[in-house]
Amino acid sequence: MRKIWEDHYPEGVDYSMKIPSLSLYEILEQTAECYPHRLAVIDGIQEVTYVELKESVDFLAGSLHASGFTKGERAALMLPNCLEYIIAFYAIQRLGGIVVQVNPLYKDAELEYIVRDSNTSWFIGQSFQREKLKRMGLVESLSIINTDSAHEDGLYYRIGEKKKHVPQLSIDTADDVSVLQYTGGTTGRSKGVMLTHDNVFANVYQDLQFTSNVLDLKRSSEVMLGLIPLYHVYGMGRMNGAIYFASTYIAVPEFQIETIISILRRYRPTIFPAVPTMYIALLNDPRLKKEDVSSFKYCSSGSASLPVEVIQQFEQKLGIHIYEGYGMTETSPTTHRNPGTWKRKPGSVGIPYPLTDAKIVDAETGTKEMPLGEAGELIVKGPQVMKGYWKRQEETAKALRKGWLYTGDLAIMDEEGYFYIVGRKKDLIIASGFNIYPVEVEDVLYQHPSVAEVCVFGIPDPYRGESVKAVIVLKKEESATEQEMREWCSERLTPYKVPRSFGFRKQLPKTSVGKVLRRVLVEQERLKMNANV
Questions:
Q1: How far apart are CA 33 and CA 297, in angstroms?
Q2: What digits encode the pLDDT tens for the residues 299-309?
Q3: What is the pLDDT of residues 44-55, one digit of tens each?
């Protein structure tokens, strides 16, 4: 049955399209064959074409195979955005291995948990990470490759060896896991999400079919600014999209505005995937000029909600559109995106991708579909939905029911099929019996001219059950009082939604991709309240 959102698909997009079956290595193989001399990756002073990239991948794959790497083995990649990450990623895919994504900033305990939980047998990272592995007693159990070593344990040493035999490519794209992507751990113990080759490539294909025609993106002509960490599902997905589309990918290891502005002026990127904190930082930096971003064709935002006020200010100041979307680790990552330039709804995450179904169900049982405009839990179905959680059958069964993924996010759908995320089930504030969605209060506070960032959450209240608290980061050289913020909210919100207390900080706790760690603020508040008892 035709869905109401399909009336808003960009012209030329087939909502029942057929997605080719490609392994992740075949993405690179195809592009190198068709566009061998197209510039593939820029990493500082290193620049490689697609044929050079494939040759490096094949040499490393041959060396790994000769060293005993076999299909299905897990290899931890603990690297920032760099050429070495990309080479290692596709070499592992060439052998039918599983990439285990690891944040290079992880401390000992975090790294040990992922290595042991995933049963990783190979480790690829920078040599200073070896000390962490040594402290955990893991050096002897792992085959370690250092990307910054010229010796036998070095990645470039292996690439430089005489080419070795590589086994025939044998991958079941529907069933074989390509990536073990651990959840961010923002709501509890991190889980390994099993993403197959079909999951990851389906999402690449959906995204490009949904955007390329409308935004005039041309194969082998685009330049992507690679700011999102590649060890994160959002960054990994965008990298695969760049390779499939024969774009030039600029690897940027960390977000520093001076560096970003220099890259914008030198390379004129056309595709800019980012997270809300990056957009907020750029918006508030006076050095960024309108001409610096005039080359942008497609700016996407993901990982967390982007306040409407930030979208509007960004577009007014710099004259470009930001296309919000929605997804999660379990969906490779995207399920929704605001379509082309004619029917955008700021504040909405847009409509489902082709071949993706979505609906809103009651948050208690997850069995009753909610009427239009009423909040409930968002559930999704599509080819990008994960195979399951690694070694966690019970949690897989809880998340995947009859083909539907229960996201844990609260949302509403309007009469045109556009979806709006209003919060997490676990973040919902219930004060005196009223449901309060933090994002609604945050959007009001973002409209205040002095506010740079804000996080709203519930704290225990003996009378109301919970009270609303807002923690605010002010813009540079701006000032504001708690009373001023309370009056601002009182003029714009129903009384029970107005925060009872405010806090001011220089920064908010965040994940590596800039998602605010609401649970950390809640825990800090709980400890403070207990100390005062």
A1: 26
A2: 998 877 788 88
A3: 999 999 999 999
Where in the chain are all domains bearing CATH 3.40.50.12780? 4-16+35-413
- Cα dihedral 194/199/204/206 (nearest 10): -140
Helix (H) / strand (E) element for 413: namely: strand 404-413
Closest CA to 358 of 275, 435, 421: 421
- Average pLDDT taken over every residue of the chain: 92
- pLDDT at residue 114 in the model: 94
Distance CA 246, CA 30 (A): 9
pLDDT above 50 (res 21): yes
Residue at token pair 């060293």: 67
For CATH 3.30.300.30, list the domain ranges present in the chain.
Answer: 428-531
Supply the CATH classification number for the domain 4-16+35-413.
3.40.50.12780
Instruction: For strands 248-251 and 39-43, give the pairing.
Output: parallel
Helix-helix angle 197-211:24-34, to 10 degrees: 50
Length of the chain: 533
Instruction: Give the Cα separation of 435 and 438 in Å (integer).
Output: 10
Amino acid at 292: D
Calculate helix-pair angle for 233-244, 24-34, nearest 10 degrees: 30
Tokens of 20: 């080719």
Residue 185 clears pLDDT 60, i.e. is over it:
no
Whole-structure pTM value: 0.86
d(Cα 354, Cα 90) in Å, to the nearest integer? 27
Task: For residue range 60-113, list pLDDT tens digits in order.
Answer: 999 999 999 999 999 999 999 999 999 999 999 999 999 999 999 888 888 999
The tokens of 134 are what? 């040594």
276-280 contacts, C-beta under 8 A, 24 or more apart? 276/301, 276/303, 276/304, 276/305, 276/306, 276/307, 276/310, 276/514, 277/304, 277/453, 277/510, 277/514, 277/516, 278/227, 278/514, 279/306, 279/310, 279/314, 279/322, 280/310, 280/452, 280/453
CA distance 317 to 284: 10
Question: Residue 65 to residues 74, 79, 96, 393, 425: CA-CA distances in angstroms?
Answer: 13, 21, 11, 31, 46
Neighbour tally for 33: CB within 10 Å: 11
Within 10 angstroms of residue 345's Cβ, the number of other Cβ atoms is: 18
SS3 call for 97: coil
Q: Write down the architecture of domain 428-531 according to CATH.
A: 2-Layer Sandwich (3.30)
Q: Are 280 and 474 in contact, with CB atoms under 8 Å apart?
A: no
Is the model's pLDDT at 533 over the cut of 60?
no
